[in-house]
Amino acid sequence: MRGVWDIVKYLDLVVSSLGESAVFSAGCAAVALVGTVVLGVPFQDGFGLVLLVVSAGLMLIGGAMSFVTPGKVRAFNVLAKRKVKMEADDYRRTENKAALYSLTGVLLFAYSLLLAAVLA
What we know:
Blueprint (H helix, E strand, L loop, with lengths): L1 H38 L3 H23 L4 H11 L7 H32 L1
C-alpha cells in the first residue's frame, strides 16, 4: 500500500511543478516582451534566454536546498554557536521543496530546448 502513496506523492509533485512552470513561463514571457519593447531584442531570443536563466537558477536553488542534512545542521550549530533544531518532518518538507524547484527548473529547461528546436 505504501507504493501507491509514493506514486500519489510524486504525481502531486509533477502537477505542482507543471503549475509552477506555467507561472514562471508567463513571467519569462513578460520579461521578454519588455526586452522586445525597450531594447528591440527579438521576442523568441529574449524568451529563450530568460527561460534558460530562470531554469538554471531554479535548479541551483533546488540543489542548494537539498544539501540541508542533519550533519550540516549540526555543523552549522557548532560554527555559529547556535542551537537550530530540525525535525524529520522539516527535512522532508525541505526535500519536497528542493524537488519542486529542481523539477520546475528541468521542465523549463526542456521547454526552452523544445522552443529552440521548433523555432530554429
